[in-house]
Please model this.
Amino acid sequence: MGQTLVEKIIARAAGKASVRPSEIVTCKVDLAMIVDSGGPRKIWPRLKELGVGVWDPEKIVVVSDHFVPAVDADTAAILKLSREFVREFKIPHFYDMKGICHVVLPENGHLQPGMFICGGDSHSTMGGAYGCYMAGFGGIEMTGVCITGEIWTRVPETIRVDWTGKFNQAVVAKDVMLFLCRQLGMDNAFTAIEYGGDTVAGMSMSERGVLCNMAAELGCETGVIAPDETTLAAIRAAGKQPIADALTWHSDRDASYLSKHAFNATELQPQIAAPHAPSNSGPVGDYAKIKIDQAYIGACVGAKLSDLRMAAEVLKGRKIASNVRLLVAPSSQKIYADAAADGTLGILTDAGATMLASGCGACAALGAGVLSEGEVCISSTNRNFKGRMGSNKAEVYLGSPYTVAAAAVAGQIADPREFLS
Amino acid sequence: MSSIIGNVWRFGDEINSDLLAPGLYLKAANEIMATHCLESVDPTFAKSVQPGDIMVAGHNFGVGSAREQAALSLRLLKVGAVLADSFARIFYRNALNFGVPCLFFPHYKDILAGDRLSVDAVSGKVENLTSGKSYAVDPIPAHLMEMITDGGLMPHLKRRLEKGKAA
Ligand code: SF4
Model:
């Protein structure tokens, strides 16, 4: 019987011809990503306790993104420790305040189809947009990976989701995911999700990243999309050559899936997730006129160049409502610079946006832009659990950058299609 | 590693991380936290569970937050194994990394509180010594069982590194 893409990658990493779901195997890790929040500061003391170093400094990428820039002495100490860690272990790939890990990795050409990657952050699933297996693990497990270069895993079953047809105006990958959180639920543990269909094939890498990023909200171990010419072009754009067998990494025709789902893109409306879960979602019309205090465009999932451009399409020649603040934290420094160069940034600031540093920031209440009790925010981020963006008495709605920008202008949740020509 | 033999503590579906490790005690020492494990479901459990006893539960065992105390408490209470219809991924990984064997066990409804079970995680055999029935389950590979027997990932790494030095 055929195998799914995820099964093929795990089999290769485990040194086996094939694997079957629920089998437990030990995989050789091609790349380990660790971040300031749960990385060096949790791993280093354990390395000291064991009296060992790391298995292969070339294969470890360290990203400082959660606590940047430091807001107090504690966060400054965490960032300082990360800098000392890479120096101590001579780790060449260190991105300090360059942007959010899940965006910085592909930007710098670290991802290739078929790789088996462990990330010390739950949204590591985003890497799967490049046709690799990338999943999130806790600090203790990343310690093991950094020492041994190995990890055990229980082979997940794969859910296949196909989208066909063309999106309506102002409907994007974010709407797909808010819809899927409602449709598939958030408790798909021990499964991987694989996206396909002509809608996905037509998506940019940035949009594919959204599908794989929010596989985490579905509870999936990873999300993958088989590589194609779009994938290869993105790898080249990052200054790397795609591996020779890149396009051979896809599921077999007769692969077996846990379940298969097919959706029609033409039927999808812009979506909103209401407090306090991404699965608590529905068409934007159901939430019209909910007043907002803050609009946030940020995070790994929601402030890439294409996201900033979506917001700019809505904001061009408009001003945000007087009682609203619009905060924009581009996903990376490179995106910040690109948005400045192509005029996107100017449109945002002309409309009244406040620009923030590239980092996790308010997404997880770690940096600038957190909410007070009773405040209402609409955000292009991926989670709206109680307390996620500040006070646990704040309310967070999720939407696409189009929808967030429309709300910023209207001062309340509004249909973004009313703001596009 | 030989079989784990113990008496059954029977639980239902969706035993979540707040039940296993109540938020109220998150700041307490792990040993104190363990004495409150599952107190709102079965107040006798943490007091009376014996080393090697086996927990049998329904689906999505361990669902909820990533707090590692949910799994660590079972380790500190010396639970022999957890058999459940299904597990939440993070709990499952934490438990194995803390040395608590977890087995997917779709026949959980056959097992009653107080039954005596023999569990061989490596061969994947579960025997109900009370009813005489036996079941095949997905095994835990020997090398992973070695980590579990060592007491989890950190003790295992320690032992592996010491062996490496001696060799
Ligand atoms: S931006 Fe938010 S979701 Fe993304 S890595 Fe940072 S905290 Fe996590």
The interface with chain A takes residues 60, 63, 66, 68, 86-90, 92-94, 96-97, 104, 138, 140-141, 143-144, 153-154, 157-158, 160-161 of chain B (CB under 8 Å).
